[in-house]
């Protein structure tokens, strides 16, 4: 590898006799030549020989990369069910090649799985996920019931810390997004409604969409990005570093110790954050309508008329359901983290994606449910 | 059919100095941990750097592998001065050696084969098949051919260290640095790793620089040993491990190499 090293050369001679290939290599079989030797062997190997005889007696230099050639021919013949014979090596070179050939087994060539097998694998995966979710929900429910009976079982300190981290710390971003979404809805609906002389009814649109739908939805999506991923990463890292095993060996249940405080904290703060997002969203609507000549009193009275207790409770109920979904999915992703540092990243991604999908699906189901009930 | 191909490095190069240190001082924030290191590590040598905890072994290693500049002095690695060299020059030098970190430092999201392929993909023009072949050969050399498609998390700690050696071998470097290769391994796995280092050293002529205070490894495979003493801020011994154990004039070195407690030496 030094600049002063002499230029080396390698020659490949190939002889074909029936279905037998004889290959003789002369010169340097090293990292710099091995690529071209590979290329030289590609065409002869396409003839699918039954046997390969490799003669390395002419090799003047051999390094660990050069060994790739006998390894390649060995693996090739083994995969094809043929024979491989090596000659012209002895001493340390023989040892080097023998060492490299240990355990080399390309295995049978795998055919791509058929459609039935692929569908079956998907179904199996979905079944595993569903049973896992069911088991996890059961575990959390049982521990929640135990805590109701014996409140001392709850890690209150951790719960309060989680309320601060996932509730209070989220106030600025939730407020900003609520305000802007309220303003955007007012912007987008003002012109079409003004055509029909229903400028003031823009307040109804803003109030109903924000309080019933978008307030909880914005809050939950921020929660999935901030808290769901954080739960997965925290618990996942603890799993990778065997902290979960340490908890179990103390006789502590990770679900009670780690999951329940996080889920409870999320359940407490999400409806509050949702109310906050809704208030700022409604104010955002006024920021657009105010300059259009609508007074605050007119706007407030219109909003009050548009909202019902049922609609308000609908928003709160959705926020609570979203909180359970996002925090449960985040914690479950953390508990099911695989091995290695990249597994934590995958767990966090899974928590966010699955959390958002679950929020939207639940929103559709709950929306239809409340609509059917006429709330 | 005949192909004539260009090439460069030989494994049968005449033995010379692989790494030369002159007046090297290492430390942090301008304060030296070890000063005045003068040392030649020869080509084809299995060279151990030993010393107590906090004696600067790992800091010296960081300077040898060009990740940390020494406070003073000169380090010539494979004929190239690395102290004060710019990042491009250091980048070129780094391709001439391989490094095995204490915990393997394998890329967790990649299989062993992909881990070994990384340097080949970045620094060679080999075809995809040839890269696979070279990576399979390197994994075969360390006894992991059958595990090529596993992730690091799916194999044991000892296997991870062997895989890290295979990755360090990817570009056929003339020097391989090993940081605490025996740490956390059982004695049998540790002895297997020692045997692998000796085999690669014999067969490939690779220089191994090993940071370790594992006495069993030092005595069984070390050609020479350099001892650092953090208290005196000096390289206090250099020579064959067995010779130093029996004949070193320095009582601290003898105590270290005979695993004798400070109190018993004081009593004696």
Word description of this protein:
The complex is a heterodimer of chains A (375) and B (268). Chain A is an alpha/beta fold. The longest helix of chain A has 39 residues, at 202-240. Chain A is built from twelve helices and four strands. Chain A has helices spanning 31-46, 68-80, 91-101, 115-149, 156-166, 171-195, 202-240, 243-249, 254-289, 296-306, 309-335, 341-373, and strands at residues 10-17, 20-29, 51-62, 83-87. In chain A, helix 5 runs parallel beside helix 9, helix 6 (171-195) packs parallel to helix 9 and helix 7 packs antiparallel against helix 12 (341-373). The mean pLDDT of chain A is 89. Chain B is of the alpha/beta class. The longest helix of chain B has 18 residues, at 187-204. The N and C termini of chain B lie far apart (75 Å). The model of chain B is unreliable at 1-14 (pLDDT under 50). At the A-B interface, strand 1, helix 1, helix 2, helix 3 and helix 12 of A face helix 4 and helix 6 of B.
Major β-sheet annotation of chain B: 6 strands, mixed
What is the helix fraction of residues of chain A, given as a range?
Answer: over 70%
Q: Which overall shape of chain A is indicated by the principal axes computed on the Cα atoms? A: elongated
**Which class of secondary structure composition applies to the elements of chain A?**
alpha/beta
Number of strands of chain A: 4
What is the chain-wise order of helices and strands of chain A?
EEHEHEHHHHHHHHHH
- The average pLDDT value of chain B, as a whole number, equals 85
Number of helices of chain B: 10
The total beta strand count of chain B reads 10
How many angstroms does the end-to-end distance of chain B come to? 75 Å
Number of helices of chain A: 12
Strand content of chain A: 5-15%
At CATH level 2, the architecture of the largest domain in chain B is 3-Layer(aba) Sandwich
Helix fraction of chain B, binned, reads 25-40%
Taken as a percent bin, the fraction of beta residues of chain B is 15-25%
The CATH class name of the largest domain in chain B reads: Alpha Beta
Strand order of the largest sheet of chain A: 1-2-3-4
- The CATH superfamily of the largest domain in chain B appears as P-loop containing nucleotide triphosphate hydrolases
Oligomer: heterodimer
């Amino acid at each position: 590898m030094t600049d002063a090293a002499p230029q080396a050369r390698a020659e490949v001679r190939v002889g074909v006799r029936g279905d037998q290939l004889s290959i003789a290599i002369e010169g340097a079989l090293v990292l710099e030549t091995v690529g071209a030797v590979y290329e030289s062997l590609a065409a002869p190997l396409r003839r699918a020989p039954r046997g390969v005889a490799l003669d390395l007696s002419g090799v003047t230099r051999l390094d660990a990369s050069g060994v790739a050639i006998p390894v390649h021919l060995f693996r090739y013949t083994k995969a094809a069910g043929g024979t491989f014979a090596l000659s012209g090596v002895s001493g340390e070179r023989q040892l080097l090649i023998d060492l490299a050939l240990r355990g080399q087994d390309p295995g049978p060539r795998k055919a791509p799985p058929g459609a039935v097998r692929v569908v079956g694998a998907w179904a199996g995966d979905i079944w595993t996920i569903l049973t896992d979710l069911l088991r996890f929900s059961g575990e959390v429910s049982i521990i929640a019931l135990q805590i109701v009976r014996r409140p001392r079982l709850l890690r209150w300190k951790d719960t309060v810390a989680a309320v601060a981290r996932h509730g209070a710390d989220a106030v600025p971003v939730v407020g900003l997004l609520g305000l802007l979404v309220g303003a955007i809805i007012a912007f987008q609906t003002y012109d079409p409604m003004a055509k029909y002389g229903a400028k003031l009814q823009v307040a109804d649109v803003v109030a109903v969409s924000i309080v019933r739908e978008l307030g909880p939805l914005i809050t939950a999506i921020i929660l999935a990005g901030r808290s769901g991923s954080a739960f997965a990463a925290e618990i996942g890292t603890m799993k990778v570093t065997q902290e979960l095993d340490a908890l179990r060996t103390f006789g502590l249940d990770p679900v009670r110790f780690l999951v329940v405080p996080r889920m409870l904290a999320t359940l407490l703060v999400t409806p509050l954050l949702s109310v906050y997002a809704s208030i700022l969203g409604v104010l955002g609507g006024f920021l657009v309508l105010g300059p259009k000549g609508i007074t605050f009193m007119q706007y407030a009275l219109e909003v009050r008329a548009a909202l019902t207790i049922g609609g308000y409770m609908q928003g709160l109920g959705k926020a609570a359901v979203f909180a359970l979904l996002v925090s449960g999915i985040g914690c479950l992703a953390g508990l099911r983290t695989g091995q290695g540092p990249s597994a934590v990243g995958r767990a966090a991604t899974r928590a966010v994606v699955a959390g958002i999908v679950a929020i939207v699906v639940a929103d559709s189901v709950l929306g239809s449910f409340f609509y059917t009930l006429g709330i | 059919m005949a192909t004539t191909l260009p090439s460069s490095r030989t494994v049968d190069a005449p033995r010379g100095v692989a790494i030369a240190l002159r007046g090297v001082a290492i430390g942090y924030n301008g304060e030296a941990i070890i000063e005045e290191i003068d040392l030649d590590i020869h080509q084809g040598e299995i060279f151990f750097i030993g010393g107590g905890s906090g004696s600067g072994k790992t800091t010296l290693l960081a300077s040898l592998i060009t990740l940390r500049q020494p406070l003073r002095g000169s380090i010539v690695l494979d004929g190239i001065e690395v102290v004060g060299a710019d990042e491009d020059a250091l980048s070129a030098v780094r391709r001439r050696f391989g490094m095995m970190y204490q915990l393997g430092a394998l890329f967790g999201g990649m299989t062993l084969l992909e881990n070994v392929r990384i340097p080949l993909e970045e620094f060679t023009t080999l075809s995809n098949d040839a890269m696979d072949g070279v990576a399979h050969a390197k994994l075969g050399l360390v006894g992991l051919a059958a595990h090529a498609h596993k992730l690091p998390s799916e194999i044991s700690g000892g296997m991870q260290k062997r895989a890290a050696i295979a990755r360090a071998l990817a570009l056929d470097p003339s020097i391989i640095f090993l940081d605490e290769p025996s740490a956390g391994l059982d004695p049998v796995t540790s002895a297997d790793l020692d045997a692998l280092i000796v085999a690669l050293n014999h067969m490939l002529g690779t220089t191994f620089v090993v940071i370790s205070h594992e006495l069993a490894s030092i005595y069984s495979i070390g050609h020479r040993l350099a001892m650092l003493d953090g208290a005196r801020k000096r390289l206090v011994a250099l020579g064959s491990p067995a010779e130093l154990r029996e004949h070193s004039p320095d009582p601290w070195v003898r105590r270290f190499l005979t695993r004798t407690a400070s109190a018993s030496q004081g009593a004696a």
